[in-house]
Design goal:
Helix content is 36%, strand content 20%. With 281 residues, it is α/β, with parallel strands linked by helices. The chain has two domains: 169 residues, Rossmann fold (3-Layer(aba) Sandwich), CATH 3.40.50; 93 residues, 2-Layer Sandwich (Pantoate--beta-alanine Ligase, Chain: A,domain 2), CATH 3.30.1300. Bound molecules: pantoate (PAF).
Length: 281
């Protein structure tokens, strides 16, 4: 752990700073506008690693046309304060030119896991995520990297890419942090107005109702999805995009729940798209 937090922008600055840090190194990749969910990853890395690096980069290649890249919330001074308080040693804040210099043309595509769910709703999203995460891994070369369970498909894609590309990095997936009404913490919650924020609690109520049905013994995916739909239908501001009951590892939809199952959903609340999930079994 270093005396005071170092901030790097270029690759050269990053590598110079990394030489000052003792391993094992934990990496917490983020897109900034940090909340308690991100900080819980940084704190976990702080507990498990000798040095902690956080990256802050709003990765343009994981946003589709018409998505919220230009208005994605940012607050670098606030983020740096929070990271310093969480005991982070080094913050890497690359510019788009550092990670995607002119003429950039190399991509990482986790073919099958990237297709359903978020991949179907946001074509190209996981190619952008897998590419930038690979680049962060290559540049920082951590022993451990920390991601949130809230982005369950992203976690599956990153676990797969780490295996497929032989990264000697342990991928640590940390629990979703929630607000008092169960809403999963997300930088995008800042888009919600007061009515939408109240309405957004419906995502977790829907997941909770499905969990309760599962705990009463229901094992048919259709019945669990119907339970979720019924709860969502009670909220006029909610417009579901997909509801899914899928195998935890392959993300293939299941009819009957036997093994570990990922119950997930994407719902528009007004114009804000929110995702959430729980794991059953
Ligand atoms: O989860 C995120 O914040 C981003 O998708 C990640 C992993 C930092 C890649 O840009």
């Amino acid at each position: 752990m270093s005396e005071s937090m170092i901030i790097a922008t270029s690759l050269q600055e990053l590598w110079q700073a990394l030489r000052l840090l003792e391993g094992p190194l934990g990496l917490v990749p983020t897109m900034g506008y940090l909340h308690e969910g991100h900080l819980s990853l940084a704190r976990r890395a702080r507990q498990e690693c000798r040095s902690v690096v956080t990256s802050i980069f709003v990765n343009p290649t994981q946003f589709g046309p018409g998505e919220d890249l230009s208005r994605y919330p940012r607050n670098l001074p606030g983020d740096l304060q929070l990271l310093e308080a969480a005991g982070v040693d080094l913050v890497w804040v690359p510019t788009p030119e550092v990670l995607y210099p002119p003429g950039y043309q190399t991509w990482v595509d986790v073919e099958l896991l990237s297709q359903p769910l978020e991949g179907a709703a946001r074509p190209g999203h996981f190619r952008g995520v897998a590419t930038v995460v690979s680049k962060l891994f290559n540049a920082v070369r951590p022993e451990k990297a920390y991601f949130g369970q809230k982005d369950a498909q992203q976690a599956a894609v990153i676990r797969q890419l780490a295996r497929d590309l032989s990264y000697p990095i342990e991928i640590v997936i940390c629990p979703t942090l929630r607000e008092a009404d169960g809403l999963a913490m997300s930088s995008r919650n800042s888009y919600l107005n007061a009515d939408e924020r109240r309405a957004a609690g419906v995502l977790y109520r829907a997941l909770g109702a499905a969990r309760a049905a599962y705990e009463r013994g229901e094992r048919h995916a259709a019945a669990l999805l119907q339970t979720m739909s019924a709860i969502l239908a009670e909220e006029p501001l909610a417009r579901p995009q997909y509801l899914s009951c899928a195998d935890y590892d392959t993300l293939a939809e299941v009819e009957t729940l036997n093994e570990k199952t990922l119950l997930s959903l994407a719902v528009f609340i007004g114009s804000t798209r929110l995702i959430d999930n729980i794991v059953l079994g």
